[in-house]
Design brief:
mainly alpha, 2 domains, 8 helices, 54% helix, 0% strand, elongated
């Protein structure tokens, strides 16, 4: 079981606040995610591991688009860890230091699906339809998609 990230509230002056606003992507970033980009810290806010200390996610190369990586991470958590789509979305957002809405955007808007349609894709025992959809959307990354789906529990 993952320990929750401990969050702290801080006050910032007007200049720092304006810096954060200037460097934030609307509807995607939080003040924390903006600061993480500029501070010399490890990427991501948590390392998600199972009870045996193994990482849940493969290490995706830098060439894999964030959208694809986030979608695959959500699928892995749902299929291999038994989480709901909503729970998996929150974990991926925490892991990446982004908002849950940013993750939802990846698997809804960019795939042209509504949340209930994504739920239907996740509920099927045969994930071929979801895999085909991802390959159509990210054709240059079909090998990553194929290998990830090979590791997903059926």
């Amino acid at each position: 079981m993952m320990n929750p990230i401990r969050m702290h509230q801080i006050d910032v002056d007007e200049e720092v606040y304006n810096f954060l606003k200037q460097h934030a992507e609307p509807f995607k970033d939080t003040p924390n995610s903006v600061l993480r980009r500029f501070l010399p810290l490890k990427s991501g806010t948590v390392e998600i591991k199972d009870n045996n200390g193994r990482k849940f996610f493969p290490q995706f190369s830098e060439s894999v688009p964030n959208a694809l990586a986030q979608i695959l991470e959500m699928i892995i958590l749902v299929k291999n860890q038994g989480l709901s789509r909503v729970e998996a979305t929150h974990k991926v957002a925490d892991f990446r230091g982004i908002t849950t809405q940013a993750v939802i955007d990846k698997y809804c808007r960019q795939l042209g699906k509504r949340a209930y349609e994504v739920d239907e894709l996740l509920m099927t025992s045969n994930m071929d339809e979801f895999k085909t959809l991802l390959i159509e959307r990210f054709p240059y990354h079909s090998k990553v998609i194929e290998s990830t789906f090979d590791e997903i529990k059926r």
